[in-house]
Amino acid sequence: MQSTLDDIIAEVKPLIGQGKVADYIPALAEVPANRLGIAVCTVDGKVFKAGDADELFSIQSISKVLSLTLAINRVGDELWERVGKEPSGLSFNSLVQLEYEKGIPRNPFINAGALVVSDVLQSRLSAPKHRMLELVRGLADDPAVISDKRVARSEYQHSDRNAAIAYLMKSFGNFSNRVEDVLRSYFSYCALKMSCVDLAKTFIYLANQGRPLGWNKPLITPKQTKQINALLVTCGLYDEAGDFAYRVGIPGKSGVGGGIIGVVPGELTVCVWSPELNKSGNSLAGTAALELFTSRLGRSIF
Ligand SMILES: NC(=O)CC[C@H](N)C(=O)O
Questions:
Q1: How is the chain split into domains, by residue range?
Q2: End-to-end distance of the chain based on CA atoms, in angstroms?
Q3: Domain 2-296 has CATH 3.30.1490.110
Q4: pTM for the complete prediction?
Q5: Residues of 3-29 as b/e, b for ≥16 C-beta within 10 angstroms?
Q6: What's the ipTM?
Q7: Pairing state between β 57-58 and 47-51
Q8: Record-annotated residues binding substrate (predicted)?
Q9: Known binding site for substrate: residues?
């Protein structure tokens, strides 16, 4: 495993320069483009890493998996009355489908869906931002995980499109709380700062029937774990979910910070980070690294 990870980092490095670091907020635009890391965590808790696997980065939309997990945990199947389970085929922050589908987002991993999920958490939890922090600290087994206030504030100052999405859903009756409050929580989840190692450990519950590392009780049921992994395969990479399934072939979730997590059910989680993105907003070198990873180890689910 260790030599495979070292080889992957060396082989993928030349791709740096072909993508574009997210620049919609200054705090993300400043991240050095040449970073590249990979970490693997196995269901029995072994961690392997290479490159910049311990450096912290903004997890952005990877947090949508955590908020979905919390929401499923709290409300169960009721959630699916307010958000769909189908791929959108459109970019993560698109508004067009929402109008003709009457304010019901296609899935929980596009921004519209994640905002509905955040709205549910806002209603159900007394301190949603704090609860999320507590959850990730527990999952990553790292009490030092924080949400970067500067990133969250900057996102809020550039939130016109996400606010438009939320207000459109509100006009259809699919949004209960004040838009500003939910946006603040949503951005605080997106601004979580974690490393590849933290994230590989955090998501091991998705490879292990809902059981986090070192916990004595499951976070979600095996059935819910299967459901989240299915949604990751079909919707985790936005309008590139098909290409990702074709090239990488495992459940995955990307974020505009350049991170991507992948799940090999029953076996391991893998997290890659490279800040330069392709046109769909997914890490360019990160996707290539995962493609090599699953191909070399013969680990696709297909
Ligand atoms: N794809 C992403 O990572 C998007 C997250 C970003 N904070 C947004 O809401 O636009």
A1: 2-296
A2: 21
A3: no
A4: 0.97
A5: ebbeebbeebeebbeebebbeebebbe
A6: 0.96
A7: unpaired
A8: 61, 111, 155, 162, 186, 238, 256
A9: 61, 111, 155, 162, 186, 238, 256
